[in-house]
Amino acid sequence: MTDTPQQDGISKIVEILLGLLSSMPPTSQQSVSSPERHARSLIQRYSVTAATSSAGLAIPPGPFGLLTVLPDLALIWRIQQQLVVDIASTFGRQSSLTREQMIYCLFRHTAAQVVRDLVVRVGERVLVKRASLRFLQALLEKIGIRVTQRVAGRVISRWVPVIGAVGMGAYSYFDTKKVGETALELFRCEIEIDGHVILEDDSSGKALTAR
Asked: Does residue 99 sit within a domain?
């Protein structure tokens, strides 16, 4: 059976995200005495970088602009991934940064229901669960569906040069800012890595776990 354009788009998004999560980028940031203030400066800097990068890719109009949609997503996610790593390092958390925390930071503001099983607040602590590869792939497919729905608006904007570029730049700015704020909120808490592994979703939609 031939994949539909939507299915093909979801598959490509999952492929991009799996590649992104295969390793964490290095960082030049170090633990500082005022991590929250420094993290906020990083959020502003990376938000501007994402905006200018996305706006530049959105300038080509019409079908040429359509070709930049997935590269645009991949580039912005890399920028946001680096922001999360830098904020984690600012709080002295880089060595304990997991792919589950990365997914949570990248997509909590756009797919809260999808990533809610990965990070759970328990009082003043944050419990981070580990996910099996099978669960992770299923999770990324759900994220891919959400992203393709949002991409429809990006595709339309590619047909309106300049205005589309400004809109995409603004979107990437605020999207990156949300990612940074989620990372800041996460890493300033006491983080505990759960000993259970989330395996897959059962028929009720709840996560199955095993030690």
From this structure: yes
Residue 25 inside a domain? The answer is no
Of the candidates 197, 20, 188, the one whose C-alpha atom is nearest the C-alpha of residue 93 is 188
CA separation for the pair 57, 68 (Å, rounded): 6
Residue 78 lies in a domain: yes
Residues spanned by the domain of 39? 5-20+34-113+136-189
For residues 9-15, average pLDDT: 86
Q: Is the pLDDT of residue 58 over 60?
A: no
The neighbouring-strand residues paired with 198 are 131, 209
Average of per-residue pLDDT across 24-40: 93
The sheet with strand 190-201 has its strands ordered as: 119-122, 125-131, 190-201, 207-210
Burial 181-194 (b: 16+ CB within 10 A, else e): bbbbebbbbebeeb
The SS3 assignment for 28 reads coil
pLDDT at 180 over 50: yes
